[in-house]
From TrEMBL:
It comes from the Eukaryota. Pfam families: Gln-synt_C (PF00120). Gene3D superfamilies: Glutamine synthetase, N-terminal domain, Glutamine synthetase/guanido kinase, catalytic domain. Belongs to the glutamine synthetase family. SUPFAM superfamilies: Glutamine synthetase/guanido kinase. The keyword Transmembrane helix does not apply. This is Glutamine synthetase. Residues 118-476 form the GS catalytic domain. The keyword Ligase applies. InterPro entries: Gln_synt_N_sf, Gln_synth/guanido_kin_cat_dom, Gln_synth_cat_dom.
Length: 476
């Protein structure tokens, strides 16, 4: 379990019976990068931090150096070290690794946070809100498809190297753990009940508590609704849950897949974010309206406070410019298509699951639970980036007192503006001079993340897909 207000002086007692510690930071694709070190070394560097190669922000998820200079990690410098500073309050033990102590880190350079470090980014946003007597709270729902360990020749069951297996086998050779689509099934989890309950129970031990756990649409799909927490804790838990699920999957011969759209013709895997603001001093939900406003332009917002309306307007005004932080991969946009329970336009509405932003207020919930559900992100999102930019966009609406200019879907009328439907289009808007992304995130981060996505686009353009090979091998 995690603890709070841990200091370096507490570590000798906290780690008294350990010989090693595991540490990890999170790269720009939301992937853990870390190592194991001796307990004595960890205690010695706990306050000042330790060297960690800046290449962690200089290469992609396959350790291929970016083809576009990402600048934050400069090849001309020889990828000099950043300083990784352990966040002692992130402490927990890893149940499936003999309870080894585990800490998350933040990356620093010359005494200041590395711009690309999502944990530092979100921490800064939360501190800014706290200065205004606000605490951001969030919940994340992660859907993911689960595949059985291949039985075909070519798969090494000891190393679980799926990439090698897929060198000689088509993706269709992978089979989901259950066939067909059966959301909220009472029976399907029984087929792999050891795996199903191992994830649920281990999540509690790993301080990554699941509030809701069930099957979802699509073959072999589960959904985990993580318990609502302060925003930085929630982003950590979303990243940690993926780490947990993949680790538990190895034990059970199952590969959990957090791609946004693993299989053509099936629903994608979402990463819905629930978000609210509460007063630090009083605990009051700041999105809840004390008295219903019958004269509001849009009845859907009758129970939403003025601050909440400004916050919603801020999110809606920014959506098209910040899409790469919700949908960061080529595959992300295969999920954002019509008729698959994923939004395709700038839209909102009371209890409307077809909208980009679902408004949840009384009478649907208690005033204390008033919140927004942002339904654009997929399971492939970087949770720290996504939560950071959501809070930034909403708070921009509060500071500028933006008004709702987009009617709810229930109002009918003109077709809402479309969201970018490819990574290329999304990056173009994100990177444009004067974009809201640049206003919110700053030029240095936007230039960096643009370079990483341009690299992803280049790798994709050079790839020869199964579709084109099958289509053209004989006929062209």
């Amino acid at each position: 379990m995690t603890a709070t207000n841990i200091t370096a002086a507490d570590l000798p007692t906290l780690l008294a019976h350990d010989i090693a510690v595991k540490v990890a930071g999170i790269d720009c694709d939301g992937i853990f990068r870390g190592k194991v070190m001796s307990k004595d070394k960890f205690i010695g560097i706990a306050q000042k931090g330790f060297g960690f190669s800046s290449a962690v922000f200089g290469w992609d998820m396959q350790d291929v150096l970016y083809t576009t200079d990402a600048k934050i990690s400069d090849p001309k410098s020889g990828y000099v070290d950043f300083i990784a500073v352990p966040d002692l309050n992130s402490f927990r033990r890893i149940p499936w690794e003999d309870n080894i102590p585990f800490f998350l880190v933040q990356f620093m350079q010359n005494g200041v946070p590395v711009v690309a470090d999502g944990r530092s980014m979100l921490k800064g946003v939360c501190e800014r809100l706290e200065a205004a007597d606000c605490q951001a709270r969030a919940g994340v729902e992660l859907e993911f498809m689960n595949f059985q360990t291949p039985s075909q020749e070519g798969y090494d069951s000891k190393t679980h190297n799926l990439a090698a297996f897929l060198e000689t086998n088509a993706p269709a050779a992978l089979r989901p753990i259950t066939a067909g689509s059966f959301s909220y099934s009472a029976t399907r989890p029984v087929a792999f009940k050891d795996y199903f309950w191992d994830i649920f129970n281990t999540s509690a031990q790993f301080d990554c508590l699941i509030e809701g756990w069930h099957t979802e649409g699509g073959p072999g799909v589960y959904e985990a609704a993580l318990k609502v927490s302060p925003a930085l804790e929630m982003a950590d838990k979303a990243a940690l849950f993926k780490f947990l699920a993949k680790s538990i999957g190895l034990k059970h011969g199952i590969t959990p897949c957090f791609m946004a759209k693993p299989i053509h013709g099936q629903p994608g895997s979402s990463g819905h974010i629930h978000i609210s603001l509460c007063s630090l001093s009083s605990g009051k939900n700041l999105f809840a309206r004390d008295v219903q406003d019958p004269d509001t332009t849009y009845p859907d917002a009758a129970n939403l406070s003025d601050l909440g309306r400004h916050f919603l307007a801020g999110i809606l005004s920014a959506l098209r410019d910040i899409m790469p932080l919700f949908a960061p991969t080529i595959n992300s946009y295969k999920r954002l298509v019509e008729n698959y329970w994923a939004p395709v336009n700038i839209s909102w509405g009371l209890e409307d699951r077809m909208a980009s932003v679902r408004l949840i207020t009384p009478p649907v919930c208690a005033p204390t639970a008033t919140r927004f559900e942002v339904r654009i992100p997929g399971a492939d999102m970087h949770p720290h980036y996504a939560l950071s930019v959501l809070l930034m966009a909403g708070w921009r609406g509060v500071e500028k007192k933006l008004e709702l200019s987009v009617p709810p879907l229930s109002a009918g009328g003109e077709e809402p503006q479309r969201l970018p439907n490819t990574l290329e289009d999304a990056v173009r808007r994100f990177n444009a001079k004067g974009s809201i992304a640049r206003e919110l995130l700053g030029d240095e981060f936007v230039d960096f993340f643009t370079a990483t996505r341009e690299h992803e686009l280049r790798v994709w353009r050079e790839a020869v897909t199964d579709w084109e090979f099958k289509r053209y091998i004989e006929t062209i």
